Amino acid sequence: QVQLVESGGGLVQPGGSLRLSCAASGFTLDYYAIGWFRQAPGKEREGGSCISSSDGSTYYADSVKGRFTISRDNAKNTIYLQMNSLKPEDTAVYYCATDFTSLGPCSLLRLWVYDAWGQGTQVTVSS
Fold it and tell me: Cα–Cα distances in Å, from 67 out to 6, 70, 83, 95, 124?
């Protein structure tokens, strides 16, 4: 059974840091593209960062580039999102998701290609 479980969310002050984890089960994570997405209240879900299956290339949305870092631990079948210099506009529910079918670079725009999603973890940036 395919499952993705996020953890690590919480309340942090502006300028602070958090590290999110996404533990995968039922499949081998590094065989497929996987990414982090977020959805703020009243807004559409958007892509934040992803790792391609083919060569491990990473991609970031402009809004998080230089502040967030995605990484993968194959031994633990887990991906992480290190978030630094957090801003109030980063407040959202964060989801990880896997694309089991696409080849080539992972996508931050074509959310419909992602087949399996976690339940999400809340990140709130506020003083």
Answer: 20, 10, 6, 18, 16
β strands within 13-119, DSSP E: 18-25, 33-39, 46-51, 58-60, 68-73, 78-83, 92-99, 116-117
Q: What are the φ/ψ torsions at residue 72 (nearest 5 degrees)?
A: -135, 135
- At 62-93, the pLDDT tens digits run 999 999 999 999 999 999 999 999 999 999 99
The CA-based angle 116-75-18, given to 5 degrees, is: 70
| DSSP symbols for 98-115 | EESS--SS--SS-GGG--
The pLDDT value given to residue 103? 82
Q: Which pLDDT value is given to residue 24?
A: 96
